[in-house]
Recover the amino acids of this structure.
């Protein structure tokens, strides 16, 4: 390691121009990355970590502006460089691995062409050689059948494969630094692990330094030699990973560490939410589902199958006041199962019994009763609230739909519900745009509770939220369950979150439930290899081996 | 693919039938009747011999009940016979065939100009880094759409024919005569395309894959033309299928302003004297043009965006 750092950021200040004036995003951020080093930049949304990443490659949004400080790459000052000079740096001196692989490749260009473009732009190869090199790069990024993939379009590749293609793009110009902006947060945990493993060995092999921007402390703990923690536009703490994790020196880092579910799980200190004891054995389950099948028709192309089984002979039951978690990777059929139970879509086969009555093909009044008794919370609180409604209108909409009470009583109920989800009454007249992600999800929960349902299907209710907010929302859900005896079907890809809230866990894969058990059984005595895979993929394993792995029961 | 084309053919037949029937009913509901118009009764108020009028009506079949007239006309139309013009006595198909090449040349030239002009303006209006310049250029399409076609035509004639004798002011002579009418017709159409494309371009430029391209070191022109334009093209292409109707409608005005022969002028003439067979023929022609244009557009989609597959039923999961 030479004494001059590869990347040196000093006192960086960046602001965004918005309608109401200037909003500071970075307020004197300092960061160094040495050659060949992996540094994790950790922070919650709005902390400025992505702004740092974008500032390094000179790609701040149009309304962003560097107000002060310096960014030096291998001794060369980047701040204040002309756009033309910056173009000579992007791709060859700094590579970028973007956040969401599903939208970060040009949908109308072949994958190989997009990799080759880097080489062509910087005159590193002619057309013919660039095309060949692109295949080698895709191979190096760990994409199977790289020659075939190079001729395909992005939509023909899975999310993980697309991220590999983006990694190939980032390494194509042999940069000394790769900035990876949340490279795996939109991927499944098992895919995340493989991709990060590969990125790590690749950068080591090439001697490239990696700046890993992430919201996930556990990922940072696994991957980085050094960790820098950001909050409100500043680096609040930076140091060797092991040291920072075991002896955090600031309160902010301590709080972040405490609320990271996967780290808590691995420490065996997961703050178990208040849980009611399982119902007495004789009691009838609230929901029981048997042999549930859902097939979707496929577009007719050639001789392929005419339909796909999203849900395949699923049996489940949920007791009153209990939480059943449905875990699995994207495409495993867990959301479809949730929608089937709510009868938002009709099953191809099987039966659904709700509250003692069969609702598999319920229509009219029976279906309306089900709608009243069973509600849903969606993943994305930014998309599931009508932006033109006020909070009061949002919360009372179910009441209006069921002609429940008069204006005054509904208003009173809205106030009461807001109080239950711990939002001030002044929120009533605001619109979703004025609220934070966590506040919005609270509003969504209040809406769900308006009709006092027996069952709430929570579809990834916290995965769009920051870890500290996640913890609060999970606590709220558990508290509400303890108060009102509502049952949850908790759909999640995140086992660490599930461990905090579920009584029982069902693991889904390719439409089937491969294992069901109590939360303790699944986490300590998982029998199915797939469940074990999922558990092993929970990040944080290198820093803190899973409690289960340390002392197998 | 064959299934797809067959289905589209079925749709086309349904559309043509509906257009034919609707025109038939509307024309019947108009006051007056074509035979009286033909006999000149409506024009100079000279009394026409009622027996003569009845004979004429009988000859053209106007004395029969409406439904029988309809069935008879439709039956002949299916066989490609739209009857004879009430005004001139010549077959409708011949009248149209004679006027068609002029209008085809005009609308084709206008369509090409509109695409070039629309794309150029959209790219230009989204390219500059200066906000003010972008907004100024962005306001041009709106202006182009709001200018009346006849006014553009008259201005062009005034400037380029009367002041600087560059192009003929009217008539059908060759390419030089085509320039002004085609430009006139292209301005509002191109402006509409520009509006849609510019909007789509500025949205596309905010897509994450544009950032990926820039992070590779691609310059602004390459990003704009090489990455954004093709992605942004789909809405404009849809628009293009729809503006074919505008071009045909616009040809009515443009051909009148520039005194060109063509379908537009033939239509105006036929409507004025209630020449039902000719109007029917023109409507069927217009519907056919519309159907063809949209079929071509639908076949171009997959070339522009590999995610679109044409030959399959696009059924979305329930």
């Amino acid at each position: 390691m030479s004494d001059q750092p590869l990347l040196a950021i000093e006192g960086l200040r960046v602001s965004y121009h918005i309608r109401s004036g200037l909003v500071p995003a970075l307020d004197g951020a300092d960061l160094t990355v040495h050659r060949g080093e992996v540094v994790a930049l950790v922070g919650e949304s709005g902390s400025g970590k992505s702004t740092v990443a974008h500032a390094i490659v000179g790609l701040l949004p149009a309304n962003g502006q560097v107000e002060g400080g310096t960014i030096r790459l291998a001794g060369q000052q980047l701040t204040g460089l002309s756009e033309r000079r910056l173009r000579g740096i992007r791709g060859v001196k700094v590579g970028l691995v973007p956040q969401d692989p599903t939208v970060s490749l040009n949908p109308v260009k072949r994958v190989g062409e997009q990799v080759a473009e880097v080489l062509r732009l910087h005159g590193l190869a002619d057309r013919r050689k660039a095309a060949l090199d692109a295949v080698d790069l895709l191979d190096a990024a760990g994409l199977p059948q790289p020659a075939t993939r190079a001729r395909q379009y992005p939509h023909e590749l899975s999310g993980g494969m697309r991220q590999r293609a983006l990694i190939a793009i980032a390494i194509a110009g042999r940069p000394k630094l790769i900035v990876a902006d949340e490279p795996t947060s939109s991927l499944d945990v098992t895919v995340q692990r493989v991709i990060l493993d590969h990125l790590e060995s690749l950068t080591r092999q090439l001697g490239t330094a990696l700046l890993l921007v992430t919201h996930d402390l556990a990922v940072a703990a696994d991957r980085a030699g050094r960790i820098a923690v950001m909050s409100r536009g500043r680096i609040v703490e930076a140091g060797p990973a092991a040291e920072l994790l075991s002896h955090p020196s600031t309160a902010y880092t301590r709080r972040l560490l405490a609320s990271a579910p996967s780290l808590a799980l691995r420490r065996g200190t997961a703050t178990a939410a208040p849980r009611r004891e399982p119902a007495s054995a004789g009691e009838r389950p609230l929901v029981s589902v048997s042999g549930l099948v859902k097939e979707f028709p496929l577009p007719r192309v050639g001789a392929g199958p005419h339909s796909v089984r999203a849900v395949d002979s699923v049996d489940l039951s949920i007791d009153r006041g209990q939480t059943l978690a449905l875990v699995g990777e994207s495409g495993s059929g867990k959301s479809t199962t949730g929608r089937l139970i709510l009868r938002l879509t009709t099953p191809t086969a099987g039966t659904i019994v709700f509250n003692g009555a069969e609702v598999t093909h319920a229509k009219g009044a029976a279906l309306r009763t089900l709608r009243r008794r069973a509600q849903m919370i969606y993943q994305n609180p930014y998309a599931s609230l009508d932006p033109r409604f006020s909070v009061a209108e949002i919360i009372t909409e179910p009441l209006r739909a069921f002609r429940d009470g008069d204006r005054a009583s509904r208003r009173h109920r809205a106030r009461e519900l807001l109080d239950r989800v711990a939002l001030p009454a002044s929120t009533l007249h605001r619109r979703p745009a004025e609220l934070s992600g966590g506040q919005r999800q609270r509003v969504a929960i209040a809406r769900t509770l308006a009709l006092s349902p027996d069952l709430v299907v929570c579809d990834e209710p916290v995965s769009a939220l920051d870890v500290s907010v996640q913890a609060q929302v999970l606590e709220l859900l558990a508290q509400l369950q303890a108060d009102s005896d509502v049952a949850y079907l908790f759909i999640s890809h995140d086992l660490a979150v599930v461990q905090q809230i579920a009584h029982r866990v069902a693991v889904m894969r390719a439409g089937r439930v491969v294992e069901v058990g109590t939360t303790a059984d699944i986490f300590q005595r998982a029998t199915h290899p797939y469940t074990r895979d999922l558990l092993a993929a929970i990040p944080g394993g290198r820093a803190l081996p899973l409690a289960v792995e340390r002392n197998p029961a | 693919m064959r299934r797809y084309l067959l289905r589209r053919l079925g749709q086309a037949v349904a559309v043509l039938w509906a257009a034919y029937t609707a025109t038939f009913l509307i024309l019947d509901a108009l006051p007056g009747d074509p035979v009286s118009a033909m006999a000149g009764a409506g024009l100079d108020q000279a009394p026409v011999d009622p027996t003569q009028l009845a004979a004429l009506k009988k000859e053209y079949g106007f004395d029969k009940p409406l439904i029988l007239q309809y069935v008879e006309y439709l039956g002949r139309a299916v066989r490609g016979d739209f009857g004879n013009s009430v005004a001139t006595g010549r077959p409708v198909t011949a009248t149209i065939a004679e006027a068609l090449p002029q209008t085809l040349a005009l609308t084709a030239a206008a369509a090409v100009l509109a695409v070039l002009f629309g794309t150029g303006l959209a790219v230009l209006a989204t390219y500059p880094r200066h906000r003010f310049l972008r907004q100024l250029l962005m306001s041009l399409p709106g202006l182009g759409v709001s200018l009346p076609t006849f006014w553009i035509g008259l201005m062009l004639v005034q400037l380029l024919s009367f002041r600087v004798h560059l192009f003929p002011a009217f008539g059908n002579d060759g390419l030089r005569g085509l320039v002004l009418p085609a430009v006139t017709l292209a301005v509002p159409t191109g402006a509409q395309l520009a509006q849609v494309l510019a909007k789509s371009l500025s949205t596309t430029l905010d897509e994450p894959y544009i950032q990926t391209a820039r992070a590779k070191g691609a310059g602004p022109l390459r990003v704009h033309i090489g990455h954004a334009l093709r992605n942004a093209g789909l809405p404009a292409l849809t628009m293009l299928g729809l503006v074919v109707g505008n071009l045909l409608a616009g040809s009515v005005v443009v051909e009148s302003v520039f005194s060109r022969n063509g379908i537009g002028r033939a239509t105006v003439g036929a409507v004025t004297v209630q020449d039902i067979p000719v109007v029917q023929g023109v409507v069927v022609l217009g519907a056919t043009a519309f159907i063809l244009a949209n079929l071509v557009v639908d076949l171009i989609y997959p070339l522009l965006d590999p995610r679109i597959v044409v030959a399959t039923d696009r059924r979305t999961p329930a």
